Amino acid sequence: MSEAVSPLESANPVRLGLKENWPQFALLVLINAFVGGMVGIERTVVPLIGAEEFKIGSTTVVVSFIISFGVVKAFANLISGQLADAWGRKRVLVLGWLVGLPVPFMIMWAPSWNWIIAANALLGINQGLAWSMTVIMKIDLVGPKSRGLAVGLNEFAGYLAVGVTAFLTGYLASRYGLRPAPIYLGVAYAILGAALSILLVHDTRDHVRLETAGHARQAAPIGFREIFLLTSFKDRNLFAASQAGLVNNLNDGMSWGIFPLFFASFGLAVERIGLLKAVYPATWGILQIATGPLSDRWGRKGLIVAGMWVQAAGLFLTGATSHFEWWLVGSLLLGVGTAMVYPSLIAAVSDASHPSWRARSLSVYRFWRDLGYAIGALSAGIIADRFGLSAAISSIAALTFISGVVVAVFMRERAAGSVDLAQNANRPAE
């Protein structure tokens, strides 16, 4: 006997699922690779531009471009969900790309370090809007059963592109100098990302309406203030995810700014620095193809806790050693741990959020997560200037371990394959 079709489904061709929406899903995977590549152009060469071309002696000043990026991206994330619900996902995605178009040109031609800082403020808007929309739209398309897979594929594309681009920019810099040749990649990414978003992407708000209409219990109207408090503090799962996301990107912000300077202080060539800087995000990106779906089967909590502790081990190993081989192992561990954590955290937030306000809850989570870039770069820079680069790395490693403990204590595991909407996450904060 065939399954009955509801009047809503028969009248609406929109369907949820990866198979049903694979052309748009694949397009969004490709676009997010270009989004990630925009960050990848900076991972190897920009800290070295500050130290070598602009002769900046203070580590805190060198990493200031990451601070501007992190703060602006955090607030762009915070408003992205509101804009997505008000304007539609596609418009916000296109806006993100339009803001990002000048970034590679500003980096190539920057006459002073302030231009680099300004370029990274624009890059923060680009990443906050464009990356947020690619992940939200994928979650919209697949529905509740495959969120981990959707997030894993999204983050795979983005961070593999970060890693590949970090390697390529290191190679190009070793052959042609730090500027402008390595940054030409960013020009291509920006043009292609903007063109595909404008010409081929379709909005996914109808998919959200379909999921919401089929939900067993409708959520009461809930304002942004309530969502912010719920995601940040009041719901224990959302709190645990938000603090872990912040610390995850805190150590990523530290590694972005400190690692090239740390490796260069031992005389490592820029091409080998580029290799180390590529291994971490490439490992992170590739393994998310597996860790995202595993979080759907095994649950989120175990992967998050173990992942934070594996990251901490990689950071401790890097800061405590002085040889390329050990740094390579440390970068691999950091990539493995982050792959365990990243898609699991986004999926955990999605589990605990009603479809009608999921985009806004994810935007709050991403606000806290990407504020970690600024906090990590600033704190690591201050520690490095006072106590040395190794001390900065080890301090962030300890904080990462503690964050894993917080998740172990506060997060409640959901049953594999279920959606956590029965309690606080399905009503306004009291």
How does this structure look, described?
The chain has a single domain (15-426), classed as Growth Hormone, Chain: A (Up-down Bundle). 79% of the residues lie in helices and 0% in strands. It is globular. It is built from 18 helices and no strands. By secondary structure, it is an all-alpha fold.
Instruction: Note poorly predicted spans.
Output: 1-11, 415-430
What is the arithmetic mean of pLDDT?
Answer: 86
**CATH topology (fold) name:** Growth Hormone, Chain: A
Protein structure class: mainly alpha
- Return the domain count: 1
The coarse silhouette is globular
CATH superfamily: MFS general substrate transporter like domains
Question: Which properties best describe this structure?
Answer:
disordered C terminus; mainly alpha; Growth Hormone, Chain: A; 430 residues; 0% strand; globular
Short overview:
The protein is 79% helix and 0% strand. It has helices spanning 7-11, 22-43, 45-53, 59-62, 64-87, 89-100, 103-109, 113-142, 147-176, 184-199, 205-213, 224-234, 236-265, 270-298, 301-320, 324-351, 358-387, 389-410. The model is unreliable at 1-11 and 415-430 (pLDDT under 50).
